[in-house]
Structures are given as C-alpha cells and as structure tokens.
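Re: How this chain folds, sequence and tokenised backbone to follow
Notation: Tokens come from a learned vocabulary of local backbone shapes, not from coordinates.
Start of record: The labelled sequence and token lines come straight after this line.
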Amino acid sequence: MQKSEKIWMDGRLVAWDDAKVHVLTHTLHYGFGVFEGIRCYQTGAGRSAIFRLAEHNRRLFDSAKILGLKIPFSVEEIEKACVETVRVNKLKECYIRPIAFVGEGEMGVPSALTNPVRVAIITWPWGAYLGDDGLKNGIRVMTSSFARFHVNTLMTKAKAVGHYVNSVLAVSEARAAGFDEALMLDTDGFVSEASGENVFVVRRGAVKTTPLTSILEGITRASVMQLLRESGVAVAEDRFTRDEIYIAEEAFFTGTAAEVTPIRELDRRPVGSGRPGEITRLVQDRFFAILKGEDKRHEDWLTYL
C-alpha cells in the first residue's frame, strides 16, 4: 500500500505513521465496527470527484444503526472530512476508507455498548482491485465451499468489520486453488455475492441480479441497474443458481473496489464465449464515462473537490 501523508482520526488530521490504536481496541478483538469503501476519480476536466459520496456515508450510518453503534460525528461532518482528507493528501485518484470502531476500555463482548466509538478516514492510491487485465478480459471465479451468512445470523445490510471473516475465508480458498475470486451461495444454495462484489448474469438477453436478501445493498450495483434501464435493458432482481451462470452469455461483478469486472470463467467452465459480452461492455462504457465526467446525465453522483 502506498502511504498518504495524513489520516483523519477522531476529528483531526494526523501523520500516517501516528494513526495508531491500542492493542486492546475492542473491534480488534470482536470485529464490532463498520466501514465504507469509496473511490475518487480524476475527471476529463482535470478535476477530481468522489463517486456517490452521500450514498456511501448514508450507508455507513445505516450500518452503524443496525449494529447499535453511535458514531460521534454527523453525516455532514464525515462527508466534509472525506473531502478534506483527499485534498490534504493531494490525491488525484484514490480509495477512501471511513471506519467507525469501538476503542479500548473494558474488555469483554458487552463492552461494545460502553467503550468509546472512534472514527478514522484513510485515503490511498489504489488501481483496479481485480487487476487491469481482469477489467479488460474478465476473471476466473470458483464457487466457494463457504456459504454467505443467513440474514438472521449476521445483519447482511450492514457493512460490518467482522462480516469479512467470511469473505477472507472464501477468497483465500479461491486464490489457493488458482482462481481470482470466489462466488458465494446463500444458505438455500442460490447465488448470493462474491467476497466483496455483487453479481449480475445475462442469459437469453435478460439481466438478473441477486435480490436484497443475503447481500449487501451495493451502491455500484444500484448505479449499474439504473444505467441498464436507461439504456433500454431490463434488469430483474431474482434468485438464480450457479449453473445458470454456467450457461449464461455473460456475467459480471460490481463494487466500489472491483468497479465493473467481467467473469470469463466459473468453476473452469467458460461463461459465454469466455470474453466480456456486449451488455457487460455497455455497462463498463456508461459507468466509466460518468466517473470520468464525460457523461453529464449523472453529475449529481459526483462530488467535485
């Protein structure tokens, strides 16, 4: 990871190497915290813009509410701090990570309710999460042996720190087997999501994505659904199975980190022709045109610095 100069921590900017927490930080032990992943892009006009900052910060606070975590700053203060942290680090393009976590104090599981809540915002340069070649040509995926958690086991609408143990297990298994990413099924055996991405499938010209049951409500997912519909492509939220992906014409992942990444292979079976398809390319073209400020129809999705 490339260091930035400053990290915003509990209301003030501190040097990267000074942004430290105690080893007894509650979230380190019990995973009780929430975070967001946000991207800032350099537009064609030379100005940088953060993609859907308001929606990401709203989800951060929604996640905290689900967990019963009280963030000691307002939504507006966190939004302003995100912008300030990018500016002070003089980053043209970067990843932005706000995180709210339970600090040190009493130990034990119930201490999540009484220990102080701390907040940090970190920014750093980060390229294509699944690689530039993955964005262009697609990635190889395997179905994980680890299921996505049930909605009453963990709260699936919260982007919570501890949830990602499930993701780490799945993607580690996939990487060890020589794949790029893991496809995860829900507890009923239907396609849920990947370790950090939502899933779309194109079959017989129809586009489907997993409904909001076992998945995180992705902001890139919602953006892509809107772009598809504006382009005259119907998209349904419906359950589907992994073998539907085997016989699909196209499939792709969406997410802040992964952006729009084609799936060229699942479980050693090529998806369609084994190359990104027409609808996937359409989505990529529309999505990146907005991020780069070339498509003015969704300028409200960009917060310019």
